[in-house]
Amino acid sequence: EAIAMTNDTRFGLTGGIITQSLRSSAIFKEQVQAGCVMVNLATAGTDYHVPFGGRKESSFGPREQGQYAKEFYTIVKTAYQKAY
Q1: Is the pTM of this model over 0.70?
Q2: Nearest CA to 53 among 82, 11, 6, 22?
């Protein structure tokens, strides 16, 4: 019921649930249509270093914040060279 209520909106900036059930929290996190999902926490106050972007009509701009973006756009290469 909580998932249906959370998803039944044009917006999807954040969603949250209060529960003691690990199973319920896992299902909620997987199925809720929100850019940020909180479990047993307030739905405001996202850390700046994590990627963030809303869903549906809450979405605006790129989701390129944080370390995730750097890792996403970086190609790692290892090279060896013997000096003479």
Answers
A1: no
A2: 11
Domain boundaries, the chain: 2-72
Location of structure tokens 């896992």: 26
Judge contact between 68 and 51, C-beta under 8 A.
yes
Helices (H), the chain: 2-7, 22-31, 66-72
For 4-61, the pLDDT digits (tens) are 988 999 988 888 889 999 999 999 999 999 888 889 988 777 765 566 667 788 766 5
CB distance 42 to 50 below 8 Å: no
- The answer to whether the CB of 14 falls within 8 A of the CB of 52 is no
Rg (CA), the chain: 18
